[in-house]
Amino acid sequence: MLIKKSQDILSSEITDQAIYRERRKFMTSSIGLTAAATLLPLQASVAGYGGQSLKFGENTQFNTTEEKTSFDKISNYNNFYEFGTDKYSPAKNAQALTTDPWSVQIDGEVEKSKILHLEDILKQHALEERIYRMRCVERWSMVIPWIGFPLAKLIKQAKPTSKAKYVQFETLQRPGEMAGQRRGVLPWPYIEGLRMDEAMNPLTLLAVGLYGEVLPKQNGAPLRLVVPWKYGFKSIKSIVKITFTEHEPVSSWTKVAPDEYGFYSNVNPAVDHPRWSQRKERRIGDFLKRKTLPFNGYAEQVASLYTGMDLKKYF
Ligand SMILES: Nc1nc2c(c(=O)[nH]1)N[C@H]1C(S)=C(S)[C@@H](COP(=O)(O)O)O[C@H]1N2
Ligand SMILES: [Mo]
Hints:
By secondary structure, the chain is an alpha+beta fold. The chain has one domain: Oxidoreductase, molybdopterin-binding domain (Sulfite Oxidase, Chain A, domain 2). It has helices at residues 12-15, 17-30, 71-74, 89-93, 118-124, 151-158, 196-200, 252-256, 299-302, and strands spanning 57-58, 103-108, 114-117, 128-135, 140-150, 166-171, 191-195, 205-210, 213-214, 224-226, 239-245, 280-283, 290-291.
């Protein structure tokens, strides 16, 4: 994510280590070098990362069969501004976050406001694995095996009133543990939102893990949103509050740059970001770019949510 006016936020496109490593790999293989010494070490994707493992079921209905991004890359190349604005700081700084105990406040247009403890949420919802493509507005993408449950299940339990048209999400605000919140790079707490039908779509997940284990803190522990057809910034991390609203929520990114980050934020290769094209993306781990697909490849499941809407206007 880039902000126009801020000088301390650098483009990941220029000096990205992961790309550098892959380029080295590409170059050495394409010119036929076999000497191991010329290759930079590439960490392998292995199971069992030392995290707490989770019990989960299969639901292959929505899984992509594309190659998964390694755990190493998923957990070391992050956007989480509460822990720094570059891609490598969250893996380090997020370790300061206390994720237990954790609770989520449910309020706004609901029959009854309440506070849910994470243990209770986990007891009530069976977990499943969902292997999703994820794409950042900065034109990189990953394939991530999330563990979670459909947001729709929690919404049904929350019993929203007939006035509830949108769902607003809020991240924890705890500057003592979140080093990035001591700087005003974004309006804190981080806010995001979905329209009710987007929130109820079976693709929309609340994730508590990845690769079979509890979420690494840098990936939004202990509970984060996953909306695979939208740009990554919609998938808000470390959620502490879910508010049902009558009016469209204003996200933190929209507050900072309304012309760059609209409410819908659907992955749309036909709508350029004001400062760069969205036609292509780089899958982390690949050297060559690939074409970006409308709705990030999930058009079949979600295009109907936007029938009749001009997606250039409602970007
Ligand atoms: N609270 C919070 N959530 C956030 C962000 C953030 O800075 N703060 N960054 C977003 C952006 S821009 C992206 S691309 C994804 C990255 O998720 P990942 O690091 O798990 O891949 O998280 C999103 N959720
Ligand atoms: Mo992003």
